[in-house]
């Protein structure tokens, strides 16, 4: 009986850890207007350069994104994407990098 309870608790812990890791804010950069062409998902904490500038989608799921007009999150922050709201733009953007706050 104790062994079954231990296994159930262990399984619940693994599910909780895995579920927590699955949800993170994501910036999806598209090559073309209207979410077309090649795309890349950026969801790593810290600075990331954005390779495509045709359009974007942001899924705010706990972390906010600071947007920069220069590579490597240098210079002044231009805009901040909310940690609890989604956003998108179908037309080109000038942002060159993002810093996801974790």
From TrEMBL:
It comes from the Bacteria. Gene3D superfamilies: 2.60.20.30. Residues 1-24 form the signal peptide. It comes from Streptosporangium saharense. This is MiAMP1 protein. Transmembrane segments: none annotated. Coiled coil: none annotated. One of its GO terms (biological process) is defense response. Keywords: Signal.
């Amino acid at each position: 009986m104790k062994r079954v309870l231990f296994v159930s608790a262990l399984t619940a812990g693994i599910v909780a850890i895995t579920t927590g890791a699955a949800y993170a804010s994501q910036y999806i950069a598209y090559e073309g207007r209207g979410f077309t062409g090649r795309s890349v998902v950026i969801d790593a904490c810290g600075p990331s350069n954005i390779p495509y500038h045709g359009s974007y989608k942001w899924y705010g799921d706990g972390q906010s994104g600071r947007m920069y007009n220069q590579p490597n999150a240098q210079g002044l922050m231009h805009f901040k994407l909310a940690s609890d709201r989604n956003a998108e733009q179908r037309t080109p953007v000038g942002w060159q990098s993002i810093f996801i706050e974790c």
